[in-house]
Write a structure and sequence with these properties.
The chain has helices at about 1-35, 50-60, 95-105, 115-125, 135-140, and strands at about 45, 65-75, 85-95, 105-110, 145-155, 160-170, 175-180. A hairpin with an 8-residue loop joins strand 2 (about 65-75) and strand 3. It is of the alpha+beta class.
Length: about 180
């Protein structure tokens, strides 16, 4: 009888210890999520030149293009479900126009594909707060930009997430919007 009580007591202590550990892990997870949604996690103009390679990789031009510098970058805070709107503007030293178009990942505007138009509308609906030279939807429709859509997520006919890249040959700027709702 004494041995049964002893084993029972060990079981109760083990369950109590595991419950305490789970409670601490949940508190840490909640604190981490709350920190991720705080305004302290929003970063403006904090990217380094080496970060440009990752952005160029999205468009498949990391080996042939060369970014001079970031003119603007804004990494927004994430919501609990990952909602965000990030904006990047790179001044390009070299952009491989013909290679990009031949790769099939890039296309010349104006856009005829409805999914591409919806992705641009969705991405531009966020607005590029803090960067006045970010093109408007009308400018994008009227100018001869080159477009790349590394990722578009559709829910039925509605765009819920997209990475949209467009290059302005006149200003030699690459604009990138990474957004999700």
């Amino acid at each position: 009888m004494r041995a049964v009580r002893q084993w029972l007591w060990i079981g109760v202590e083990t369950i109590g210890g595991l419950s305490l550990l789970c409670a601490l892990l949940m508190a840490a997870a909640i604190a981490w999520c709350a920190w991720g949604m705080s305004p302290y996690c929003e970063k403006t103009n904090s990217l380094k030149p080496r970060d440009a390679t990752e952005i160029l990789r999205w468009g498949g031009i990391e080996h042939t293009a060369k970014a001079r510098r970031f003119l603007y970058s804004k990494i927004s805070r994430r919501s609990l479900t990952g909602d965000h709107a990030d904006f990047f503007v790179l001044e390009m030293e070299r952009f491989p126009r013909h290679a990009a178009l031949e790769s099939g990942q890039w296309m010349e505007g104006p856009l005829a594909d409805p999914a591409s138009q919806k992705a641009v509308d969705f991405s531009m609906s966020w607005g590029a707060e803090g960067y006045p030279d970010f093109p408007s939807r009308k400018e994008i429709a009227d100018q001869p930009y080159l477009f790349c859509f590394p990722w578009i997520n559709l829910h039925g006919q509605r765009v819920t997430a997209a990475i949209v890249m467009f290059y302005d040959p006149a200003s030699k700027r690459l604009f990138v919007v990474d957004s999700k709702t």
